[in-house]
Please model this.
Amino acid sequence: MTEMKATEIKAPQFPESVADGTVAKWHKKPGDAIRRDELIVDIETDKVVIEVVSPADGVLIDQVKKEGDTVQTLEVLGHYDIGAQAGSATSQASSPAAATDEKIAGPAARKLMAEKQLTPAQVAASGKGGRITKEDVINHVPQVAPVVQKAPIVEAPKSPVPVVASSSQALLDNSSLDSSGQREEKRVPMTRLRAKVAERLLEAKQNTAMLTTFNEVNMQPVMNMRKNYKDAFEKAHGVKLGFMSFFVRAAVEALKRFPAVNASIDDQDIVYHGFYDVGVAVSSDRGLVVPILRDVDRMSFAEIEQKIIAFGSKAQEGKLSINDMTGGTFTISNGGVFGSLLSTPILNPPQTAILGMHKIQDRPMAVDGQVKILPMMYLALSYDHRLIDGKEAVQFLVTIKDFIEDPSKLLLDI
Model:
């Protein structure tokens, strides 16, 4: 009988800004065959999900850390036997069909495959090293044979189902009742990311003197510039010209004029930053994340757009690193992409200000004594009144408004 050689599977070295993580999901169970670079377990931190892959071929022996357990940097997660085989599991893995079924996929791709009831073997991989990306799954979906939709069933389901409607709707909707007539509730633990977001939001509300000032901006000049140069811009730079690059550049110019908005409070000290690292809020499957555009004052419009697109893709695939989201001196959040007309953004401590963009909507405006229909956007600037006076906040927002309504100033640096 061959002696088992137990080799440790350890958590990665966490950055200094990350104290610990939580075992989010084991993708292999004891006795399963694993291959080199195959995903074994996900570790969720306050900011990102870290994927731990197998360093060599073998068989998983045990799981020292279970799902939901807290794990420290370089702590042992489990053990595996290098070079061992797992009987039928190994023979299946050696076959082409099984190998295809075990393709590596990111968290976003796995989630979407589960939703669409697809297996990795059905999806053509285009990512590095044969990895399945979310785009691969999306591109595959139209190829699936259409499903004939049946008329909705009005009778109560035989098994309990989670309530996804509001509580008031649930009182009226018999579909929220199980076979015994009881309404079902589902309790799930809060993810580390959501818990950290909640903690920071409370910290911002309790430990800052937060106020918000509002203004509105005419988006017609920027829209005209995009219309006139979008084709040439995309041909020259390989990326579309979006609105965000205008606001990022306008914000940087405003930050140069009002250094307090780019500063932070450290105990009894004010830290004035001589650089401009702008966080751009991006939506992901795990929630809202804020990757950082570093040294934006040195970036062109094209570089800003390219970086934002790259961050968006990484966020959807769960590939944002700790470094991508660490730091930042100012934040921009665009609720307009979800249809928000007006909102009050909450500070991201230790930053002292955040800009909120909103939906562009045609409204009648008085221009030179005449009523014109213009594409208008409400802007909101939340700021820490301990450091930033109301006058500075208002002037900062007006400066952004002026640059957006006359974007040629951004190109001429005036």
In short: The longest strand covers residues 370-384.
